[in-house]
Amino acid sequence: MTFTPLLQSFVMHFGEMGSRWGFNRTVGQMYALLVISDEPLSANDIAETLSISRGNVSMGLKELQSWRLVQQHHKPGDRKDYFMALGSVWDMAQRVLEERRKREIDPTLSLLRTILLESPANEQEAYAQSRLNEVHDLLENVTHWSQELQHLSPEKLETLMKLGAGVGKVLDMKDKLLPSKRN
């Protein structure tokens, strides 16, 4: 692979974005390199291209495997392990969202459930629990919604995303045509 300035720019930026998605900059750069590579890359290829240590690559590949974002390949007659990004860009997005849910939202929901089962000791705790219940309900709804989205095909997801604010307009029209019982 020829690592042109254009490709390097993407890989470096993706590394910065990776740190916002839950893994470090170097792991993000490694993943970006694998995403844009049309051939599986060895750990040595990755280390050389990104000018990082072989040990850092090894740890990064383990992390990417734990996220289920890369797949290991073998070439006949070659003892090295090769790696490539697993699945489509939609698969990547779903895996990142799923892993973020497991690592961040699920533990938060578990803590919130525990707190909400306790009887408040005073008015301050009662108020705090009412607010925490709102957070709990929001996270439950977001989790349910994201799980429903994961069952949609990439084509349906793309159509849904293209609808964008149009969905809000449809809901506004529904409210005008069918006033809720609250009004």
Automatic annotation (TrEMBL):
Pfam families linked: MarR_2 (PF12802)
Keywords from the UniProt entry: DNA-binding, Transcription, Transcription regulation
Membrane-traversing stretches: none
Occurrences of domain HTH marR-type (ranges): 22-80
Family: Belongs to the GbsR family.
Name used for this protein in its record: HTH-type transcriptional regulator
Organism of derivation: Fluctibacter corallii
Lineage summary: Bacteria, Pseudomonadati, Pseudomonadota, Gammaproteobacteria, Alteromonadales
